[in-house]
Records
---
Amino acid sequence: MVATRAYIFFGLNAVRILSIVSLILVFASSIFVMVTDIEAVNSFESAKQSGNVTAQDLVDCEYIESGAFFWAIINRLLIIFQVVILILSEIGWPSSFFDRFFPVLGSGFGLGALGIFQGLIGAAVLSQHVDDFTLVSAFFLFVLGCINMFIGLIFRESAKSRRSITSWREDAKNVLPTTNQPPVSHLNLNRSASSSSGQSFTSSTMNEEKSSDLGEFGAGRSSSRAGYGFGRQGEKAAGLKGFLISKPLETLPRYAARPTTAPSQSSRSPSPQPQFSSSGTAI
């Protein structure tokens, strides 16, 4: 279980690193294309002022004359802004800002929305006539967007929590117990095991005693040979068969201590004194 969780953690973070790299490449390529477009416009305006513009140049740079150049620059600026937002979302900073103003990019949502945004940016760049570096960067971003959408369908909102480093550390602390305090679960298991073993031992002992008593006094035998014990029923049954049960005489036990001192003189009864007559003879 821990190995599977570790594989998922490292796999999601590898996709995150590749996603950040692709966004950085698109950021750099957008700036490069924007600078190239500005230089092309400046060179066209300078050639136009000098009168060196041919008819073919006017056809090739028709978007400059129609004012489409302005919207091309706005497009590049919006792509750069979106790429910066997505990079911050992948880093996870500031998380409170995204949770409040961009919830789909916050911690409460998965990677599906992020993949959709990456796919839209990549398709928008690939639909234009640009250099090879920009095309490769946009295609790389589009592929990563598809992967993030697939991961979002699998893990849904738990994808970001599974790849979070802070949550990984917290889970590791919960898994590994500290040395100062033993895990409560082990104590409970030991107590429950000891109590259950004690109960089972007590129940088995009581069952053995009951079985021995039943076997001794005949209660466990068949109905035809049932015994009556030493109670009134047993005495009655013995009387019907002609047996008499006499009670034993109450005697002192052999180990009773004998008195060591003789009775005192005061406790003895006084003997009668002899009486004499006038002649001196005893009466």
---
Amino acid sequence: MATRLAVAAVLLCFCAVSAAGCLTRTKVTSLPGFDGALPSRIETGYVTVDEENGAELFYYFIESEGDPGTDPVLLWLTGGDRCSVLSAIFFEIGPLKVVIEPYNGELPRLRYHPYTWTKVASILFVDSPVGAGFSYSRDPSGYDVGEVSASLQLVKLLREWFSEHPEFLSNPFYVGGDSGGGKIVPFIAQKISEDIEAGVRPTLNLKLLDEISKAYILGRECIYVSPIRYHETLDRKMLEKEHGVLKHPPAQPSIECGVYANYLSYFWANSNVTRNTLGIKKGTVNEWVRCHENDLPYAIDIKSSTKYHRSVTLKGYRALVYSGDHDAIIPFLGTQAWVRSLDYPIVDDWRAWHVDGQSAGFTIAYENNMTFTTVKGAGHTAPEYEPERCFAMFSRWISNVPL
């Protein structure tokens, strides 16, 4: 099995002529732990975003299961302290989920996620900022970034990626993110819109923003699975098998906790078979961790994103702002307050929206293509807690169908 999976990826490396430098691609035809054919085409790769320091952002591009030639393309960013976007793929909106079962030393198994957003859109998941997931810098100075500089690096990545994937330039393009990722989404959208107005090539077909706002107030209290300290209860022999030694393994939660899947992700992402399949460059990231706990510099230099929301929506770009109504980290009332502060006229007043005849939350639509929605029963990362409702919300909104 290991041999077959190790050769399941095809590496394509070339240098582009644009300012972003080199782009490296890997075509992934199967994934460790997942039986059968992948639901759609997957590509991983690196884009150089800081030539001076040799900093490269790592991405996963997952094509739509529908019609990738016409379906929207969505850039997706995750939040937290340099959290890997693999969390969004495995626990929120991607086509694969970690099978939750007691860890026994074998590679964790994956299963198909029936409410993946890739049913209706192609998604470009990016490990950002530099230092998150498999993104890295050859010079340590490359890790010293902030919200503004990291956002500009993402704009650079998009220019490079679309230059090498021109077949997607005509597709509707959206920018999305949750938690801290949602904070920089409107800034990125504004920079893209400015590039469009200035005639910068390639021209992205920008349509949107997408933001989500203690994570789930009804959940049981569980430990935080994100690592930097050694947990004595772990069996080191388990960690020293084929997937390699974890120098900083996460604490092991109860299997009854939802975060147990986070725990399993460490063993999947640090497997040598997985790294070969994804095309991870050797010597770049010694150990994948789900999130970094403030061990790398990161400037919080976007104090408020409201002005960027106003700027891009006044230009006519679509915006969906949604919150889980059981999120105590960023309660939906606070998000609702800043949306109201835009003072846009209401076109569809506060009402319930439904899935299978049952209330799925509340929604309100404003002029300038601004929609605010709550997701009933969802926590901080809403699709993780209510995948069916969030898929219904996204698929309707992305298709211009009223919620």
